[in-house]
């Protein structure tokens, strides 16, 4: 059996969520770049593997899995030996699952809306700023008693959410006076030894890309 193959492009927050998870468990994997800006995710070959044409996608032992959350949990369960990243305890697991769905259902759609309006209008709509602040308020509450999103240990919820939250803060830095716990959590996550390689580098590339997208959209208004 060969190494698991991760298909991705690191400007994408869900791809970076899987890179963080793979690094957290010390996974030996192959990375294949799929340049979504050049349409590589729409190639016949890629569509055969993932008809939903999203990145990230994992190919493991000839089987394909997509959606970052599904991939991250699969990798931890199959290849990880850390008992805390996705614990067996059902209540702890349910809390972590809730945070993963919060990432899918609230954080990531907000990120997409913001990117779409930066790309087309060069600005962030007021309505989306409000969505973002509402999401930050929820995160502040999730972090009110604990150091991490799923309790006092690092879990897959932190690895997935930080990729999206850090992307949301590219254009909207967290107000540390208003969201002190969220700000501390972001700083804590940035101290992970693999953070820069797995999230920081792609995030910096994404920030540059979105800045250029916004200024060309403003120029064409
Ligand atoms: N919920 C999915 C979202 C994946 C997603 O939408 N990825 C974007 C890149 S950030 C993508 O593949 N866009 C191309 C497309 O949807 O065709 C996940 O967590 O993996």
UniProtKB/TrEMBL annotation:
Residues 89-210 form the GST C-terminal domain. InterPro entries: Glutathione-S-Trfase_C-like, Glutathione-S-Trfase_C_sf, Glutathione_S-Trfase, Glutathione_S-Trfase_N, GST_C, Thioredoxin-like_sf. GO terms for biological process: glutathione metabolic process. Residues 2-83 form the GST N-terminal domain. It comes from the Eukaryota. Pfam families: GST_C, GST_N_3. One of its GO terms (molecular function) is glutathione transferase activity. Gene3D superfamilies: 1.20.1050.10, Glutaredoxin. Homodimer. PANTHER family: FI01423P-RELATED (PTHR43969:SF4), GLUTATHIONE S TRANSFERASE D10, ISOFORM A-RELATED (PTHR43969). This is Uncharacterized protein. It comes from Hermetia illucens. The lineage of its organism: Eukaryota, Metazoa, Ecdysozoa, Arthropoda, Hexapoda.
């Amino acid at each position: 059996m060969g190494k698991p193959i991760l298909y991705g492009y690191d400007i994408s927050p869900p791809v970076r969520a899987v890179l963080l998870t793979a690094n957290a468990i010390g996974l030996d994997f192959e990375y294949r770049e799929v340049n979504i800006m050049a349409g590589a995710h729409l190639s016949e070959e890629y569509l055969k593997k993932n008809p939903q044409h999203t990145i990230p996608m994992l190919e493991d032992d000839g089987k394909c899995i997509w959606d970052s959350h599904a991939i991250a949990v699969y990798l931890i369960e199959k290849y990880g030996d850390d008992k805390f990243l996705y614990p067996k305890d059902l209540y702890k697991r349910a809390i972590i699952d809730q945070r993963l769905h919060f990432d899918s259902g609230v954080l990531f759609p907000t990120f997409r809306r913001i990117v779409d309006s930066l790309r087309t209008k060069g600005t962030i709509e007021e309505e989306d700023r409000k969505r973002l602040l509402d999401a930050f308020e929820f995160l502040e509450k999730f972090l009110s008693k604990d150091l991490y999103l799923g309790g006092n240990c690092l879990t897959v919820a932190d690895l997935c959410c930080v990729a999206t939250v850090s992307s949301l803060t590219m254009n909207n830095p967290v107000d540390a006076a208003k969201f002190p716990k969220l700000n501390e959590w972001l700083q804590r996550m940035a101290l992970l030894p693999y953070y820069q390689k797995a999230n920081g580098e792609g995030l910096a590339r994404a920030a540059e890309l979105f800045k250029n997208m916004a200024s060309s959209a403003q120029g064409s208004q």
